[in-house]
What does this fold into?
Amino acid sequence: MVQRRSMDGYVSPHTARFGPGGSVFSQSVWTMSAIFLAAALVFTPLAAGSELGPDKTPQAGGKPAEGIRAESSRREVAQGKPGKEGKGKGKGKGKGKGTGTGKASQPPLSSSATPNFLLDDWVYAAREATRSHSEGKANSGTVRNSAELPLDGRTWRVIASARGRNTNHGVEALIGLLQRTADGLAELHPGSLVEVGNIGLAEGGKIVQSKSHQAGRDVDVALFAKDRKGKALRLNRFVSFRGNGRGENGLLLDVERTWDFVALMLQSEEPVVQWMFVSGPIRELLLDHARSRKVDPALIRRAEEALKQPSDSTPHDDHFHIRIHCSDWDRLHGCEDYGPVRPGVVRNDRLMRERLETLSRRVRKGLPRERLVAMDQLARLQPVEPTPALLEELLCDSDPGFRERALRLLRRTAPKRIPEAVLAAIDCAPDAGAAAFLFDTVVDLRHTSVYRTAGRLVQSSCAAEEKRPLCVAALSALGHSADLENAPLLAAALESSDRTVRNQALRALRQLLARDKPPRSKSGTDASAWKAYSGKVKSKPWDEVVLENLAAAGYRLEHPLASPSNARELLRALRSGGPGATTAQIALFKAFSLPHPRQLPDGEALRIASAHVKRKGPARAKNAGQKKSDSASASDVGAKDASAEKDGAAEKDGAAEKDGAAEKDGAAEKDGAAQKDGAAEKDGAAEKDGAAEKDGAAEKDGAAEKDRAAEK
It folds into this structure.
């Protein structure tokens, strides 16, 4: 029996047991288990790393790795020419030996190789807990397990102003790229130092100095300077340079060293640099320098694509803002690139599909907690879209948490499929509450299938008390359907025994018909009158009926309803918040050809419509509409004042009406009639023009009464 000495020196047979029972067989079993476990933890992640290729770089401070042609001669790297591994004389103007320390570049991702890490979820979880990855977009994302760039290195340093910010963290791939590039530049230009500004916070997120730098894939690097004698300088800060390469205090832009830095960055195979933001004049200086050195045209084209002056911030005349593409490992965690994809980026979509299958199995068969975690991971997966069968299954799940996550996933990956998927899931919902929750997500959508489903739900669910939430949501949707065939359904719901249903039906009916109460009814809640009116108009065009109702409510509108000339009056109806607000919103968005996928709150719709009326409202149409309104108003008043015209009392009042006075109160402002105390009603037409002296009796007996009617 193998004996082991305890901490206090006492040897006991019990302490000699390696495993349960202490037998030789048990000892062998536990030994073999430990060996296999260690092998799985070590070799499987390594195999996965070679397959994934998201960050083939060592941790901070390691030796230069593949992805940049460090084995090339100094001038070959700067000029973009392929080099040879090992030591040798450099070509071109520079002198010296190549580094010979770079490893052979690994082959691109293969679609036929098997990613071992996906075979077992626990292996993936172990890798996820230790390896850095970027999530989301550069201006709204995060980073997990970030790597830290030491403040001082042999060939780089963080500038003085950035040292106290704790913004020297990023994904391992970016940190490794910085270190390799700095080492390569120091070999091309001995003594050179890459001076780094902000990268990002340890957990990502917003930083004060920039809108981006949130996902661990951005870094700021100072431009390289020299003095008038050509001596390279270390400034430990950012220095601005003008378009001629001159800076403050006689400093000059070191164009050669700056271009070599750009060339080293752009020749990285993994990660691939997407952008190097810098001011336009400095970009031209660098490209002219490269052309004068007869650099490989392919590298120049690559630089022309990557070097760009940012359009939404300062010109970047004192530093580079560098951004790398998401790796496949990053994409498995929801990393999102936006903008052009640069040459050299290889995407292994098979990994995304396999990860989707793994998470889908977990969602279906895992424990409750595992299912929720898998759903969150599934929602971050980009750009793979879950299968329709999985989405329908999740939307019908009995757990509200899964239904909410499924909806978020649907909005993120396939927003156009929301009506179809949600409406299909209503029939398989476990209860009326779940069905109501699903329909609430599409109740504001202006979609034919939504209105069709809403009509079916009103007929089938409004009679049952347990389905009340579903009925109320369906009634709300019919209120903005702009289809009068739904009016009888809403009118029938007014006879429901449930007060909530009746109130919602009345609200929706008023919105659909753009009127507060039915004709020949003293009360707006008269169900029989609403039912009769709905049956009368159900076969008529919706826009004609609501145009008539809005005109009866005092809005001056012309046919057709959705005309830019009606914009001012429609805005007034929308601003009122009354029954005509829904109609006004639909007509305004149609008049200006605005996308209207969902019915908006009145305040938001008013803001959008007002902006378009001010910017796009045709002045000619408005003037034409004003003239027509003026003439219509004048003719109406003239018809009502016919008797006064015959006796000449209203001739001068008609001239005042043409000047626009009749639009406001029907009485001529220029007549001098007192507007505040109703003098016009007593004295008739204008006292100053002598009309009262000619036929005062007629004015008192006839014209005054008809002017009073015109004012009303």
User: Anything to note?
Assistant: Residues 425 and 598 are 20 Å apart (CA to CA).
